[in-house]
Amino acid sequence: MKKKIIALDLDGTLLNQDSQLSDYTISTIQKVRQQGHTVLIATGRPYRMAATFYHQLQLDSPMINFNGSLIHMPGKRWQWEKNILIDKKYLLKFLQEEEHFEADFIAGEYKNKFFITQKYLDKIDPALMGVDQITPDTLIKPEKITSDPHSILMQTRATDKYALADEMKSYFKDELEINTWGGPLNILETCAKGVTKASALTYLLDLLQADRKDLIAFGDEHNDVEMLELAGAAYAMKNCSDTLRPHADHLTEYTNSEDGVARELEKLFL
Predict the structure, then answer these.
(1) Residue pair 204/189 in contact by the 8 Å Cβ criterion
(2) How far apart are alpha carbons 25 and 183 in whole angstroms?
(3) What's the gap between Cα 126 and its chain centre?
(4) What radius of gyration do the chain's Cα atoms show?
(5) Could you give the CA distance from residue 167 to residue 173 in angstroms, rounded to a whole number?
(6) Measured in whole angstroms, how far is the alpha carbon of residue 67 from the centre of its chain?
(7) What is the pLDDT of residue 67?
(8) How are beta strands 215-219 and 233-236 bridged, if at all?
(9) Which tens digit of pLDDT belongs to each residue from 82-103?
(10) Could you tell me the CA-to-CA distances from 144 to 95, 124, 147 in Å, in that order?
(11) C-alpha dist (Å) from residue 249 to 35, 108, 213, 240
């Protein structure tokens, strides 16, 4: 079999209901890699919130974070690293509209740091930011916004995160990419215009001298739409959003909580 490139979303896809990797999933992916296939993580999460999974899977491939805003080789200097940033004026505007967007928090995300609103500190799960606790030094202030972020992360109290995402796209005159996270959390992530997991994967396919027909992708949310459209074999999770389903070639037989990705990979390769 020709070697494949397998792009995996994390939340609602590879991770279970407890946002963890099962031993079965880890073992299956290691077996697939041993056959010479390349496994890539493509996630909306910043690296600090995805590093554990990268190391658990013992990957040595490039990683896509912030929905495509950061393409890098974790722990290494890599000449092909790519950073696509958002003009900081948008982060300032987000802060001005904090109540209008019904935000529990707004965070400016950078490669190795973040700044976050702390008005509703009881609504913030520190693990969501990859830390043990939210500390005062991470409080976002306009004077701290001196450089452009990779992404803007927002948790909202709005009852319909999809409708809010559409409203925000209109508010910002379609100048930004605004997507929802997978899973039950009301999280919206904003990237620069044109940045998607697919744009990052296109960049990597070119570097790897691979064809899109050799790309297999798994996702569950509408930030995975472009990635599934790019892939030669596109899998939506059984638990996927209604938005994503029409863009998939296949629906997994099992959900993310039932090792849906690993079971499909086992059928394909093992």
Answers:
(1) no
(2) 18
(3) 18
(4) 18
(5) 10
(6) 5
(7) 92
(8) parallel
(9) 999 999 999 999 999 999 999 9
(10) 13, 20, 8
(11) 24, 35, 13, 13
Take residue 3 and report the two structure tokens written for it.
Answer: 């070697």
pLDDT single digits (tens) 228-258: 999 999 999 999 999 899 999 999 999 999 9
Are 139 and 118 contacting, i.e. CB atoms less than 8 angstroms apart? Answer: yes
Q: Could you tell me if 72 and 78 are in contact, meaning their C-beta atoms sit under 8 angstroms apart? A: yes
- Smallest CA-to-CA distance from 207 within 29, 108, 82 is with 82
- Distances from the Cα of 116 to the Cα of 67, 185, 267, angstroms: 19, 17, 43
DSSP H helical segments within the chain, as ranges? 23-34, 51-56, 88-96, 161-171, 197-207, 225-230, 260-269
Q: Rounded to 5 degrees, what angle do the CA atoms 28, 245, 268 make?
A: 25
Q: What b-and-e string marks burial along 76-115, b requiring 16 or more CB atoms within 10 Å of the CB?
A: eeeeeebebbbebebbeebbeebeebebbbbbbbbbeebb
**Strand pairing class (176-180; 187-192):** antiparallel
Please give the structure tokens belonging to residue 197: 């997991």
Name the pLDDT band for 49 (thresholds 50, 70, 90). confident
- CA 148 centroid distance within chain: 19
Average pLDDT estimate for 52-68:
96
Is the separation of the CB atoms in 122 and 155 below 8 Å? no
